[in-house]
Specification:
The structure holds 2 protein chains of 2 kinds. Chain A is an alpha/beta fold. Chain A has helices at 25-42, 67-78, 95-108, 123-128, 146-160, 178-189, 218-221, 246-253, 257-260, 283-286, 293-311; strands at 56-61, 82-87, 113-118, 134-140, 167-171, 193-197, 213-215, 227-230, 268-270. In chain A, the strands form 2 sheets. Chain A has a 5-stranded parallel β-sheet with strand order 7-6-5-8-9. A 4-stranded parallel β-sheet of chain A has the order 2-1-3-4. Chain A is globular. Chain B is of the alpha/beta class. Chain B has 2 domains: 3-81 and 398-409 and 431-450, Urease, subunit C, domain 1 (Roll); 83-389, Alpha-Beta Barrel (TIM Barrel), CATH 3.20.20. Chain B contains 15 helices and 19 strands. In chain B, the strands form 4 sheets. In chain B, strands 1, 2, 3, 4, 5, 17, 18 and 19 form an 8-stranded mixed β-sheet that branches. The longest helix of chain B has 17 residues, at 236-252. Chain B starts with a helix and ends in an 11-residue tail after the last strand. Classes of the chains: A alpha/beta, B alpha/beta. Chains A and B meet through helix 3 and helix 4 of A and helix 7 of B.
Chain lengths: 318, 461
């Protein structure tokens, strides 16, 4: 891989990783460089290191997630940490109370890093204010999912050799997507051009203020794109609430070969998963030779290792 | 029906508070004051003489000369004006006393220069029956140190479907009728309530917010909500309801008050309705005059209120509305919430901000910034709500009840929420730098609050 000019940091200058907003190009470059090395190492037989030996990492998930949790678990274990997974079944009434109470309780067990996913925007930041350890946001509501954006960036960088100057089209449910918000912030910090493509009902207000060009016509939005990033559309949103039907959605916003032809011939096809084949992406497009969807999963482990590694020197050492 | 209509309600409304305050035995004279009466526009040096709970005399001739036998208070040139009337206060009594009682709210009110507070029916149980109006009046008489009036629910349980006994409730002393924090979605119900209330000359006070557009939202729709990943409620959710209500008022001819508007478009609708001669008025909360949606950044739940804090352009429109007089009144919208329901993820946290005690000093920001003249500002918190609610207070004139406050316009201070008197400490103005504070509050001639931190300027009585 090419060496990148942004990697001048000797240490990641943050205690938590809560959001892509506020991360600078050197911050991101630092994490991606670490992740690059981790990705290469992960392909060898001996993957284990002991950077986090003796450290406790808690995966605290208020929302079920297979791949993100597995990915963080693997990342922690490969770095030698003791990893504990907690899936908190949240009752609908007392979510908030559970959150603070759980934070205080877990904090008393003296973990070193807590990885949190929560259904409410801002919940992870709130939790980070109540604990003494480092906190990694593994997704909070429709707010942020920084490790997803980092793994997307790593996947793109490894395939294209750079991020700056690329045109990345993010297509789908922007309104409810933390993946979109994190990617827009990160890609802007890395000087990529970001477009968002969605029907108006799935766009938040003032989306342009996030630093993205807005398209409601996918054919136009994909024109000359270097990267096509599809988002998952949840089933409950296709039954007339936000779009009339999955059939109509696929017709106008599903990635098929015809629309893909508008993008550059070497455009990457991405999806954070899990995919709805035939809803937002045609099955054959998902398995296309230019699809890097499986690379994204692989980079997910590497990026999470990099994040844990980057935060570790900032933990109390004594 | 006809007999009910004949009884003059406003006199009943004003009776109880004066009875509970034992008139001061010693007459008091306030010398060397800057007298401000927002009704007449009086703003001049002078003095004021209080006897038997009433303003016995007022004018420049009392600037230095004390009547025989009166206790003398030297105001040192500070402002003496009518006590504030806060037309929107949420208390926790009955049912949520851990948040606030009429007693604790009244102490916060007194410290903030509020001599009359109107409590909302959003309690548990809801104030939708005569017995509960009685209950509030009795509890207020026994425990509160300022005047307390209650609004009654206009639909049972605030459910928005069945009308309450508006006639009987008004006769029992309900000062106005409202659906509290919720809007009436059913237009037929709203029309019937307005129509029926007109027969009793009852004032309808409505929180305007389309419940469908605001269902999942927790803040203003816009860039900040987009960044924070929070569902937003657009300003149009409010304007639609204001517009609908005005059209209904046009048909029914009722007295209608939009409780707290928050955006320029709603103000335009109210302006146009007034121009057409409708009996329409509106209020704004102190929060929407001094804060905006950017304050929510960082998921600060103490800034989560309803309607939500809006864009800075809308805040400016609200300030301009006060300056022009198109917005009639300013309310604190005091809504005490305990830490448990505020220390939650933003979308799950309770709405509401404590505001009684900081109402006046925060409002003075608009005066100090030069946006609103002092008399105009005070008007929106004294004589305007008095006229709206049919109260005789809110004026500084001979024969009026001696609900008066002494205010140092310039004293700088920093808000410390732990020192606020409200039982709940959810003030969005915690650590705010304010200029101006209440030195003394009199309710019916009795001093119910005196600022201790600056006693040097207040010689002993």
């Amino acid at each position: 891989m090419t060496k990148f000019a942004s990697a001048q940091l000797t240490r990641f200058p943050h205690r938590h990783l809560l959001s892509c907003e506020g991360l600078t190009a050197p911050d991101i470059g630092f994490l991606l460089d670490l992740a690059d090395k981790a990705a290469d190492r992960n392909r060898k037989v001996d993957k284990k290191r002991n950077i986090l030996a003796g450290r406790i990492v808690i995966n605290l998930f208020f929302e079920a997630s297979t791949r993100t949790q597995a990915s963080f678990e693997l990342a922690g274990k490969r770095l030698g940490a003791d990893v504990m997974n907690m899936l908190v079944a949240s009752s609908s009434v007392q979510k908030g109370e559970t959150l603070i109470d759980t934070a205080v309780t877990l904090n008393a067990m003296r973990p070193d890093i807590i990885v949190v996913r929560h259904h409410a925007a801002g919940a992870v930041e709130l939790l980070s204010q109540k604990v003494d350890c480092s906190v990694v946001n593994a997704g909070d509501g429709a707010h942020q999912h920084p490790t997803q954006a980092l793994l997307d960036a790593l996947t793109i960088r490894r395939a294209k050799g750079r991020l700056a100057g690329l045109t990345v089209a993010i297509c789908g449910d922007i309104l409810h997507s933390r993946v979109a918000r994190s990617n827009i912030a990160l890609l802007n910090a890395m000087s990529a051009r970001v477009r968002v493509i969605a029907p108006s009902t799935l766009l938040p207000s003032n989306p342009d203020r996030l630093g993205a060009e807005v398209y409601t016509d996918m054919w136009k939005g994909l024109a000359d794109a270097d990267v096509v990033m599809m988002l998952r559309l949840q089933h409950e949103r296709m039954d007339g609430a936000y779009v009339p039907s999955s059939r109509e959605y696929f017709h106008f916003f599903g990635l098929d070969h015809e629309k893909l032809a508008r993008a550059k011939p070497d455009a990457l096809i991405m999806h954070p998963g899990p995919m709805n084949r035939g809803v937002e992406i045609a099955s054959t497009v998902a398995d296309h030779s230019r699809s890097v969807i499986r690379d994204q999963v692989e980079m997910g482990v590497a990026v999470r290792m990099a994040v844990l590694e980057a935060l570790s020197p900032n933990l109390p050492q004594a | 029906m006809k007999t009910l209509r004949a009884s003059p309600m406003s006199t009943i409304v004003n009776l109880p508070p004066t009875e509970k305050q034992k008139p001061s035995r010693t007459p008091q004279v306030f010398l060397n004051a800057r007298l401000i009466d927002p009704e007449s526009g009086r703003d001049e040096p002078g003095g004021l003489f209080v006897q038997d709970g009433l303003i016995a005399d007022i004018g420049p001739h009392l600037r230095r000369n004390a009547p025989e036998g009166a206790a003398v208070i030297d105001c040192q040139g500070h402002v003496l004006c009518p006590g504030l009337i806060d037309a929107q206060v949420f208390s926790g009594e009955p049912g949520q006393e851990h948040r606030e009682t009429l007693k604790t709210a009244s102490r916060a009110a007194a410290a903030g220069g509020v001599t009359t507070m109107v409590v909302m029916p959003d309690t548990s149980p809801v104030i939708d029956q005569v017995a509960l109006v009685d209950f509030i009046q009795r509890r207020a008489r026994d425990n509160a140190i300022v005047h307390v009036h209650t609004m009654a629910a206009m639909t049972r349980g605030l459910g928005g479907e069945e009308m309450t006994e508006i006639g009987l409730l008004k006769r029992a002393g309900a000062i106005a009728f409202t659906n509290g924090k919720s809007s009436i979605a059913n237009t037929r119900v709203m029309r019937n309530v307005l129509n029926y209330a007109k027969d009793f000359d009852a004032l309808i006070v409505h929180h305007c917010e389309d419940p469908y557009l605001s269902a999942t939202a927790s803040m203003n729709s816009g860039e900040v909500a987009t960044r924070l990943g929070l569902a937003g409620v657009p300003t149009v959710a409010e304007t639609i309801v204001v517009e609908r209500d005005v059209r209904l008022v046009e048909k029914t001819g009722s007295r209608y008050h939009a409780s707290t508007i928050s955006c320029g478009q709603s103000l335009d609708v109210i302006r146009a309705a007034k121009a057409r001669g409708l009996k329409v008025s509106c209020g704004v909360s102190i929060n929407h005059l001094t804060l905006n949606e950017n304050d929510v950044t960082g998921y600060r739940t103490f800034f989560k209120v309803r309607p939500p804090l809006r864009h800075e352009d809308d805040r400016k429109a609200m300030v301009e509305g006060i300056a022009s007089g198109d917005i009639d009144i300013i309310v604190s919208s005091h809504d005490p919430q305990d830490a448990d329901v505020k220390r939650r993820p933003f979308q799950e946290a309770a709405d509401g901000a404590a505001g009684l005690e900081t109402l006046l000093p925060v409002a003075l920001r608009l005066f100090h910034s030069g946006d609103v003249g002092l008399v105009q500002l005070l008007k929106a918190m004294t004589v305007n709500p008095a006229k709206l609610l049919g109260l005789h207070s809110g004026r500084l004139k001979k024969g009026a009840i001696a609900d008066i406050i002494l205010v140092d316009l310039n004293e700088p201070w920093v808000v410390n929420k732990d020192l606020l008197r409200s039982r709940s400490k959810n003030s969005p103005f915690d650590e705010a730098r304010l200029q101006g504070r209440v030195l003394r509050t009199l309710v019916a001639g009795e001093t119910v609050y005196q600022y201790a931190g600056n006693s040097a300027s207040l010689p002993a009585v």
